[in-house]
Amino acid sequence: GAFSPVYPWTFGDGTPPFRALVLDATDAEVWAMAARVDANLDLIYDHSAARREQLLQRAAKASASAPKEWEPRQARAWAFTVASDSDSAMLLEAEKLYRGLLVERPDDARANSGLAEAMKQSGRFEEAAKLFERAGDWRMAGWAYVDANQYGAARALADREIAKAPTPGLLKLKIFVEAF
């Protein structure tokens, strides 16, 4: 049969994000999803300036189309985080956006995790660790504690979470922190 790409994100009707751009290029949700796809492509394998520029443009279109909507603002914050390459101005803008999002949804895992990543890139490792924990990302929280030279906190987290459900990532963390 013919090749059919599998997209990890689709809209309710099954439309993949880039096809949706052709169908409705004015929808903020479509632009937000396209920005998230670009962000993931950047994180996985395409670290080009062109990919990052497209990511930022799509996120800007999303938030300009619906500046008060949550998803477009989250996509823009994530775009700044991913595209920042540790640029402090972009990370500050991401932080501002995430903090606003968290006022609305304090327990949102994506917003907490995104802010944690921005804090990590800013060298604010202890704050990142606490935000990763709030998001339920124990592995990333543990490594942020390691980056903050808080090996005891990383060990305690690994022990607590391994007792609940041992995962390869937590076991690697445990092996590492045992050396300290």
Explain this structure.
By secondary structure, the protein is mainly alpha-helical. 72% of the residues lie in helices and 0% in strands. Helix 2 (28-44) runs antiparallel to helix 3 (49-65) and helix 6 (109-121) packs antiparallel against helix 7 (125-135). The relative contact order is 0.07.
Terminus-to-terminus distance:
55 Å
Low-confidence runs = 1-7
**Strand fraction band?**
under 5%
Total number of strands:
0
Instruction: Write down the overall mean pLDDT.
Output: 86
What is the helix fraction of residues, given as a range? over 70%
Q: What class would the helix/strand composition place it in? A: mainly alpha
Taken from the alpha-carbon principal axes, the silhouette is elongated
Number of H- or I-type helical stretches: 10
Q: What is the N-to-C succession of helices and strands?
A: HHHHHHHHHH
How can the largest sheet be summarized?
Answer: none
Radius of gyration: 18 Å
Show the helix and strand layout.
Blueprint: H1 17-23, H2 28-44, H3 49-65, H4 70-83, H5 88-104, H6 109-121, H7 125-135, H8 138-147, H9 151-164, H10 168-177
Helix pairs in contact: 1-2, 2-3, 2-4, 3-4, 4-5, 4-6, 5-6, 6-7, 7-8, 8-9, 8-10, 9-10
Write a concise synopsis of the structure shown.
The protein has helices at 17-23, 28-44, 49-65, 70-83, 88-104, 109-121, 125-135, 138-147, 151-164, 168-177. By secondary structure, it is mainly alpha-helical.
